[in-house]
Structures are given as C-alpha cells and as structure tokens.
Structure prediction request, 294 residues.
Amino acid sequence: MKTAAFLGLGAMGVPMAAALARRAAETGGRVLVWNRHADKAQAHAAEYGTQAAALEDVGQAGVIFSCLPTSADVDEVIGQLEGHLNPGTVWVDCTSGHPDAAQSQRARLLTRGVRFLDAPVSGGVSGAVAATLTVMLGGPADEVEAVRGELAFAGKAVHVGDTGAGFAVKAVNNALLAVNLWAAGEGLAALGRGGVDLGAALTVINASSGRSNATENLIPARVLTRDFPPTFGLGLLAKDIAIALDVVGGVRGSAPVLAQVAALTRAAAQMIGPDEDHTALLKLVEQMNAQEIK
Prediction:
C-alpha cells in the first residue's frame, strides 16, 4: 500500500509503526500515525519519519493497523472513523481482542466496504523492535494472503482460521503464559524457602523438562533482578486470560487450571497493580510464601 496508518502508539505500537515506516522508506510509501495523546504521534513522526495525523485523515490509508488495549477501544475508534473510511480499505487489528468483537467489528466495517482482519501479535517489545513478531491472523484466506506483504513488523505470520480465530489463539497463548509463570513461581518460592540457590535451580530447570519462556527469559531477566520493567501490564494479562475462559465457555469446554490461574491473575492485578509488568504476578506468589524469588 502507498499509504498505511497505525493507530495506537503504546509500548508495542511505537516499534511496530517504526517497522512500517522503514518499509515505506524503501518502497516510496508513507505511514500515518495516530494516538489519543497527539504528542506521542508527533514524537513518533519526528523520530521515525512517519506523519502524525488527525483521526479523520486516517481514512485515506489503504491499510489501517490498530494496536489498542481492548476491543472496546477499537469499537470507539471505529465509531469515530466510520464516516471517513473508503471502500476497499483493509483494517488489520493487532489488539489482543475478543473473538466475539472481531465478528461484530468485521460485520460493521463491511457495511462501509472495509475488510477487517484480527491479527494479534506475540514476541513482546523486543520482537516488535526487531520486527520478528509472530502474527496470528483471523479472517478469509484470500484477504489474509493479500495483506501478508504489509506486515513489516512480522517475522512469522500464521493464518489460524476465520474471523476471531486470531484473537482466540492469542488469548489462549497468553493464558498459557500466565500458567507457566505462576507454576514456575510456586516452585521457585518453595525452593527458595528451602535455601536452594534459585539461579542454580533455573540452570537445571532450563536444561530439563520444566523449562518454559518464563523460566528461560522472564524470571531471570525481570524477577531475579527485581527489575519488573513495565512492558505488558498485569491488568492486560488478566484481561487476556479472561478472554481465554470465554473461548473455553464458547465451546462448552473444561479448563479448571486456566480458571484457577485466571482468578489468581485477577487478584494479583488488584493487589499488586494493573499497570505493573505482568511478571509482577509473582509478587503475589512471594507474598503467599513469605519468600522473594531472587
């Protein structure tokens, strides 16, 4: 597309839009950026060569990317943009949204001749900076194939099913993140109470069958260091695992472990703080065990 737009310049949106700008510089295109706080869009334009735009001007883009906190936020922006959209535009929503919302958003936008794809991402801020994100695409296969070349921030793009499937996979993926993080925290807290060197314990675990991204990357870099850098909020993790339970309920499935960890994550978001990094989930484990994981 000659003109793309990116809506939402949070921790993920800034580097994702920057990746689009690098591609546009190579192909002679341009990237419009919008954020609720206009100063963020202006700062992005100054640093990355994008163009800060008013929301009503975004409709001139051939492809619109959004990366907002929730599907409700996307609904709000769609409402503000509806009268300014052009038929033939493709809306690619990278929000960690709700599958049901994807269905209604697609139906709503199709009345304007705009195609909607749910396309949440995984890989964190580091993956966004490196443009190696995994994108989970939900929607008709021909529309997914048509947009692949526009995903400048992706290292891998997987078509996982029809509309809403991308959001469903993302929610379950993040629910598994919470499960792995919580379980590892419980185990390490017990080892710590027993006087075990937790760095040494992680060396063993990460060479053995108990390893996960939580033990290999998150806990060593964020928990043992007591750093907890605010990249992905604990409140958003609680939101995502709640969506995963809606997915389970929607197919009349059973997921008692996910349900228990969802309750614990929700409690942690309330007690520790929703804006704390998601790895601060383990601060609740620490409180329950009177043992820091360090």
Remarks:
- Residues 145 and 159 are 9 Å apart (CA to CA).
